[in-house]
Amino acid sequence: MFRKDIQKRLGLTRKALDYYEEKVFIHPCRMENGYRKYSDTDIATLAFISLYRKLGLNLREIREIKDSPHSLKNLLRKKARNVENEKEKQELLTQLAKGATLDEIQNQLAILEKKECLYDRLERAFPG
């Protein structure tokens, strides 16, 4: 399949295709006239990348999932933990807006930071 067909089919830009080729996600064949011809494997990889990019993942995360599919669960846990941390921080902001003192918030923030640090240490000790 040629570039314009892939762009139309997957909604990717020419620049994105060049970038994914540069980052060695895909390996299109160069024809004599200079056109790139994409294999079924390249198309599947581009569809994979496109889906995960739309879900908000960066290329490092996508490569990790592509190389090791079980890492998706780890990534999902990490993202869920980040969402939980952001909710807790938002609650602290709400408490500040309602008149809580800075000392109260700083104490609660210190607890939250220790919890985050514990998660990081556990993840390093027990990956996956």
Automatic annotation (TrEMBL):
Keywords: Coiled coil, DNA-binding, Transcription, Transcription regulation. Residues 73-125 form a coiled coil. It comes from the Bacteria. GO terms for molecular function: DNA binding; DNA-binding transcription factor activity. The keyword Transcription applies. InterPro entries: DNA-bd_dom_put_sf, MerR-type_HTH_dom, MerR_fam. It comes from Streptococcus minor. Residues 1-68 form the HTH merR-type domain. This is MerR family transcriptional regulator. The keyword NAD does not apply.
